[in-house]
Design brief:
The protein has a three-stranded antiparallel sheet with strand order 1-3-2. It starts with 5 loop residues before the first helix and ends with a helix. The chain has helices spanning 6-19, 21-33, 36-44, 52-59, 63-75, 97-100, 103-116; strands at residues 50-51, 79-84, 90-95. It has seven helices and three strands.
């Protein structure tokens, strides 16, 4: 049974990548911030800076989950964390410029969901 030469497969792969270049950006963005809890926390921080316990109450996340999600979001550049060492010690979280740039995306998704879900 005849098969295509290896270079034909490479040409096909290149064509697929070219046709899906725009989709790849969307997929990459969703992979970076697309986990359920990440979206919940990012959306919650749209209202402004919050302390850890405020986020815990408003999102309903466990301490472990929220801590893990905030660490990930900080490492990915979506969230900034600053601590106050006065008594009581407090950690404050806010969106970075990168995180804040997602606000119009949340608004668009919200409008879409109201129409379609």
């Amino acid at each position: 049974m005849p098969t295509q030469p290896p270079e034909a497969d490479t040409d096909d792969d290149t064509e697929v990548e070219r046709r899906n270049a725009d989709v790849c950006n969307v997929v990459g963005a969703v992979e970076q911030m697309g986990a359920k809890w990440k979206l919940i926390v990012l959306n919650d921080l749209r209202d402004g800076e919050k302390r850890f316990n405020e986020l815990k109450r408003s999102t309903g996340a466990s301490s472990y989950t929220l801590s893990r999600v905030l660490d990930d979001l900080e490492a990915e550049g979506f969230v900034d964390n600053h601590k106050e060492f006065e008594s009581p010690v407090a950690s404050y979280y806010a969106l970075t410029e990168k995180g804040d740039a997602l606000c119009p995306v949340f608004e668009s998704l919200d409008a879409w969901a109201e129409d379609w879900l």
